[in-house]
Amino acid sequence: MSTPQAQAVRRWILTGAITAITVTGAIYGAGLKSKQEFKQERKRVLEATPEDMIAQLQVARSELVNKKSELERKIARFTERQQEKERGSDTK
């Protein structure tokens, strides 16, 4: 019969091996799923009608325009605050 210390070492080795197998399987499975989703998305884009493509592009454009206006508003607010700070430091 093996000693308790040998059993503990064996248990740790088995635990590490099972963990390594599980992690490897999860990573491999995630890679397969990502690849499959990419292929489906590519197929969907290639099969899209011109009207669908135009609609998708218009949605993307409107989102970009919204982001642009938001950024412009933030920049304007920032420059306004900077000018106020400069005016405030000039009077001191």
Can you give a write-up of this model?
By secondary structure, the protein is mostly helical. It folds into two domains: 1-47; 49-91. 93% of the residues lie in helices and 0% in strands. It is built from two helices and no strands. It has helices spanning 4-47, 50-91.
> How can the largest sheet be summarized?
none
How many discrete domains? Answer: 2
Rg: 30 Å
The total beta strand count reads: 0
Identify the overall geometry.
flat
Number of helices, counting only DSSP H or I runs of 4 residues or more = 2
Mean residue pLDDT: 92
How far is it from the N-terminal to the C-terminal residue, by CA? 88 Å
Q: What is the strand content?
A: under 5%
| Helix/strand order | HH
- Kindly state the percentage of residues in helix: over 70%
Structural class: mainly alpha
**Uncertain segments of ≥5 residues (pLDDT<50)?**
none
Write a concise synopsis of the structure shown:
The chain crosses the membrane at residues 12-32. By secondary structure, the chain is an all-alpha fold.
